[in-house]
Backbone:
């Protein structure tokens, strides 16, 4: 537990440090290209009792520092609004620049975050990303996948005329498609190699990511697992009914059970009903009655009895056959990285839009605690997963900073666009009012993010 904590903290600091440094370098680089004088480049914040961890002045006259609060950064530019400026330096003051130049400086930070995502995705696809083949498991009853005639072992070849290389592609495409369309068109190939087109109806499914795939009936194919119970969730229906870890389920309501995967579908639509199981326990057969109920596995709510499978594959070779690898040459990898960046951008913007509409719960908003946990988890998997995580967070950082909220780059860009249309800057009073609104919104958003983080930790 302590190791996980320190790994999460270390991964979070590294990830945020890289993202903030690259974001601020965008502002820094573009400002310098236009001849604007940079006074300070800071990764992290410092002030008062929080002294800089490291501070030095470069030969270019810029003061570089690493702040002790690793939750952001800034580039301080020469500006008459923040202090007197020598007459000889006035042409290099930020406030004296044309509005187009000022907009470019503000837009450079988010743009560099998108660039960083492209670079990381390019490196990942050039080196090779492990994935699994886009094979489907048996869909649940009364789901759109079942209604469309999908079956276990079907392989998704394309979604809405776009080729699918693995489950990562399929997952992203389904999420993005559900945000903007009522139907998804899939090209699938069955076990015999026959290709057919099917359509998934999205009108009655929840677009919230934690429910979407369950509602659709889409899940990755898994080789048959022995119907032997692993961990029994304490206090769950199975525990209350007296089921034990190691029990082999022989039948459910008289219907034979040959693989563990059958258990999920058998209980999903039987909430509150008595289900009779016959299990093999040692040398004897035991009859058990259990009542499925609502459960939460930390990722989604579902109806079940609270049992986990044993982490033992029936046939290891079958699992190896499911593995695939997305790897391309440098040029193709760049094209794929650009497409991935575009897909993820559409996905994040779509989530924000549907969240505003109330279709996606605001509980999905995470703060630094959740980000640190995700960073630590991805780092524990390997460098590839960690770089993918950093690329995704970089995209989020770029998108959030482009929101038209004062105090963010997007708000300053909006001020600049208004100035272009109006022919003169907004009044100081209007800008101050906007800043106050922006600060209020950011405080509320941060408060919500921290609340969600703590709620996840507590329970």
Residues:
């Amino acid at each position: 537990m302590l190791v996980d904590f320190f790994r999460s903290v270390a991964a979070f600091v590294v990830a945020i440090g890289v993202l903030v440094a690259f974001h601020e370098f965008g502002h820094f680089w573009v400002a310098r290209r236009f001849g604007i004088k940079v006074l300070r480049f800071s990764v992290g914040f410092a002030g008062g009792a929080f002294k800089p961890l490291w501070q030095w002045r470069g030969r270019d006259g810029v003061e570089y520092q690493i702040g002790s609060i690793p939750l952001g950064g800034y580039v301080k530019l020469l500006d008459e609004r923040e202090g007197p400026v020598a007459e000889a330096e006035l042409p290099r003051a930020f406030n004296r620049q044309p509005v187009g130049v000022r907009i470019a400086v503000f837009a450079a930070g988010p743009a560099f975050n998108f660039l960083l995502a492209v670079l990381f995705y390019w490196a990942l696809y050039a080196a090779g990303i492990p994935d699994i083949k886009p094979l489907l498991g048996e869909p649940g009853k009364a789901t759109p996948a079942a209604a469309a005639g999908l079956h276990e072992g079907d392989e998704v070849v394309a979604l809405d005329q776009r080729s699918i290389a693995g489950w990562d592609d399929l997952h992203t495409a389904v999420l993005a498609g559900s945000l903007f369309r009522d139907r998804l068109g899939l090209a699938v190939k069955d076990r015999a190699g026959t290709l057919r087109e099917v359509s998934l109806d999205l009108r009655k499914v929840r677009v919230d990511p934690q429910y979407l795939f369950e509602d659709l009936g889409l899940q990755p194919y898994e080789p048959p697992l022995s119907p032997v119970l692993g961990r029994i969730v304490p206090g769950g229906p199975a525990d209350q009914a007296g089921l034990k870890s190691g029990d082999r389920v022989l039948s459910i309501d008289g219907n034979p059970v040959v693989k563990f995967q059958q258990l999920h579908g058998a209980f999903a639509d039987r909430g509150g009903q008595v289900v009779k199981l016959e299990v093999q326990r040692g040398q004897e057969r035991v009859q058990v009655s259990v009542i499925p109920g609502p459960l939460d596995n930390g990722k989604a709510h579902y109806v079940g009895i609270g049992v986990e499978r044993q982490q033992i594959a029936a046939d290891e070779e079958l699992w190896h056959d499911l593995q695939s690898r997305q790897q391309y040459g440098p040029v193709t990898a760049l094209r794929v990285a650009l497409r991935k960046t575009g897909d993820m951008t559409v996905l994040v913007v779509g989530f924000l839009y549907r969240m505003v509409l109330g279709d996606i719960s605001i509980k999905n908003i995470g703060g630094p605690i959740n980000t640190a946990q995700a960073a630590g988890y991805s780092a524990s998997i390997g460098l590839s997963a960690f770089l993918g995580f950093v690329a995704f967070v970089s995209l989020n950082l770029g998108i959030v900073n482009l929101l038209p909220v004062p105090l963010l780059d997007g708000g300053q860009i909006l001020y600049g666009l208004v100035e272009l249309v109006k022919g003169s800057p907004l009044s100081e009073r209007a800008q101050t009012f906007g800043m106050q609104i922006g600060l209020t919104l950011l405080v509320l958003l941060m408060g919500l993010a921290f609340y969600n983080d703590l709620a996840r930790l507590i329970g």
In short: The mean pLDDT is 87. Residues 229-310 form a domain with the Pdz3 Domain fold (CATH 2.30.42.10). The first strand starts at residue 38 and ends at 45.
